[in-house]
Amino acid sequence: MNTPMGTEEVDFKSFSGYLALFIALAALVAIPVAIGNAPHDVMGDKDVPVFVVIGCALIFALMVKGLYMLQPNQSALMMLFGSYRGTDYSTGLRWANPFLNKTKVSLRLRNFNSEKLKVNDKRGNPIEIAAAIVWKVSDTARAVLDIDHYEHYVPIQAEAALRHLANEYSYDHVDEDDSALTLRAGGEEIIRKLKSELQDRFEKAGLKVEDARLTHLAYAPEIAGAMLRRQQAEAVIGARKQIVLGAVSMVEMALKGLTERGVVDLDPERRAAMVSNLLVVLCAETEAQPVINAGSLYQ
């Protein structure tokens, strides 16, 4: 996998650390044994094998220096005098060239909760938005070698992605006929677009977005009151619309029933008066008081 800066992740093969630990302990034990079994010279003193002692001490130091341990979901980036040699994903006690610089990188999932950002939506309305992002390192070569401090890279790019998402869509629909995707009503589609936006930015740093969710979405305080009144007005209008539609249907049903059953024969003027009275009764917010007409409409 080539990065824009030319770094390619390589799988590094290490050795068992238990074998290296056994060799180190054997070399350590061999030092006093070699001294104790050293032959005597002509003067009666022991002729200590210096080269054997130095060799055993050197083997012990190299074995111990090359030991390292990797836990599950942890890797080690191997660098030899500034040259990248690969990434070791083997877990447990391992051993590698003691001259290698071993940088451990966690591959576990991490959470990032962004702060509330004040941005403008597509219509220019100021809104507040925040998100929770679950991410992890997927390419150690990119994460360590291509950028400085990938932990600092995440919040900056997450904020940029949230701002771009908010600028691309409106907070909510202006009217009922508007079918455009919005932040408030977008649901899973907005989440997919947020994850895609984040992944495009994180991929350059060898990071992977596992999940992303909006944790806060609201109008900014300076316009929240006005938007609340608009929403209340829309709710009242919607309720009135349903009341009127229901009243018209009931009036139509009443006139049809009276005509079919022959209860009363209404001319156009009396029909209009009855429609008016029925609509007033059905649509009025207060209880209607009946008026009994004992005479004729024409007198």
The assigned structural class equals alpha+beta
Proportion of residues in β-strands:
15-25%
What is the radius of gyration? 40 Å
The CATH topology label of the largest domain is: Tetrahydropterin Synthase, Chain A
Overall geometric form: rod-shaped
- Structural domain tally: 3
Give the ordered list of helices and strands: EHHEEEEEEEEHHHEHH
Fourth-level CATH superfamily of the largest domain: Band 7 domain
Range of helix content:
40-55%
CATH class of the largest domain: Alpha Beta
Give your account of this protein's structure:
The protein is an alpha+beta fold and 299 residues long. The chain has three domains: 15-105, no CATH class; 110-219, Band 7 domain (Tetrahydropterin Synthase, Chain A, 2-Layer Sandwich); 235-283. It is 45% helix and 21% strand. It has helices at 17-36, 50-65, 140-146, 150-168, 188-202, 221-261, 268-283, and strands at residues 15-16, 67-70, 74-80, 83-88, 92-95, 101-106, 110-113, 117-120, 126-137, 207-219. The strands form three sheets. Strands 7, 8, 9 and 10 form a four-stranded antiparallel sheet that branches. A three-stranded antiparallel sheet has the order 1-5-2.
What keyword list fits this structure?
single chain; 299 residues; alpha+beta; three-stranded antiparallel beta sheet; 10 strands; disordered N terminus
Please provide a brief summary of the model.
By secondary structure, the chain is of the alpha+beta class.
